[in-house]
Amino acid sequence: MFGRLAGVAMPAGDEGAQIHPDVAPAQGDIILTKRGVSAFAGSDLDVVLRAGGIEHLVLTGIATSGVVLSTLRQAADLDLARTVLADGCLDNDPEVRRVLAEKVFPVQADVTTVADWAAATTAAL
């Protein structure tokens, strides 16, 4: 999927390597560099989550059949709780996204919408 980017190094100062201001990390946030399809591959994500006592992932993404699926499967192997926000996922093939959200993801995660998750999270506070 990302084969055409293999070996391509983007200089740290390059505009394309910058974090967009709308999602800029706050003071003290941890920044990890994703190096594989799964968010866990080649990163310290598992260590950071465990050190922070985080046991539940909420997944969204623009590559449902790649990043979201791979990260979900690895999170399951690591015994982390999982929620997928179906309408927060996108794929090049809408039918693939639909099948994953409706048939594959529910086997390994709670699947909900952004609005329902936000309402439940707000109610829990």
From TrEMBL:
The keyword Transcription does not apply. The keyword Iron does not apply. Gene3D superfamilies: Isochorismatase-like (3.40.50.850). InterPro entries: Isochorismatase-like_dom, Isochorismatase-like_hydrls, Isochorismatase-like_sf. Keywords: Hydrolase. Transmembrane segments: none annotated. GO terms for molecular function: hydrolase activity. Residues 5-116 form the Isochorismatase-like domain. PANTHER family: ISOCHORISMATASE HYDROLASE, PEROXYUREIDOACRYLATE/UREIDOACRYLATE AMIDOHYDROLASE-RELATED. This is Isochorismatase-like domain-containing protein.
